[in-house]
Specification:
This protein is an alpha/beta fold. The protein contains seven helices and six strands, in the order αβαβαβαβαβαβα. Strands 1-2-3 form a three-stranded parallel beta sheet, sandwiched between helices. Strand 5, helix 6 and strand 6 form a beta-alpha-beta unit. Helix 1 runs parallel beside helix 2.
Amino acid sequence: MGNNPAYIQAAKDLGKGLVQNKLRLVYGGGNVGLMGALSNTVLDNNGAIRGIIPEFLQQREALHTRVHDMLVTNDMHRRKSHLYAEGDAFVVLPGGLGTFDETVEIITWRQLQLHNKPIFILNIAQWAEAFDKTLHTAVQQGFAEESILKLYEITPDVSTTLKRIRETLGITP
């Protein structure tokens, strides 16, 4: 789950902020790691939550039994499809390969104009800088158009992320 306590605190702060702004959390349905901290905070504060998990990950990612609105899909592709369809905006917290996979895919889908939803990558403890640098390098080396850099936004903290969500979705505080 990462060894920086700032990651856990950011997940909890995001959970509180979602509830305060009356925003529903749509997430992968697990009860471990940062997403566990985020979902537990939303639940502990009586927030709205929707979990979407594929059958094969129910045990591995510890299906969150407190989430009552849980969709179990046949596979990862259906899970992602539901996550992307049901989200109004995407917030990326620090993570590993699954996080990178989903982040690149949702940015690619936006590039392909399959959606035009905002994508915010939370730069807690400089976690997002290497990812951002990789995309800049792809542009510099001619593998991607410079326009891809406008498909996502790196945000420095949870409060800025919540502010940007409100602005882009037209939500008044």
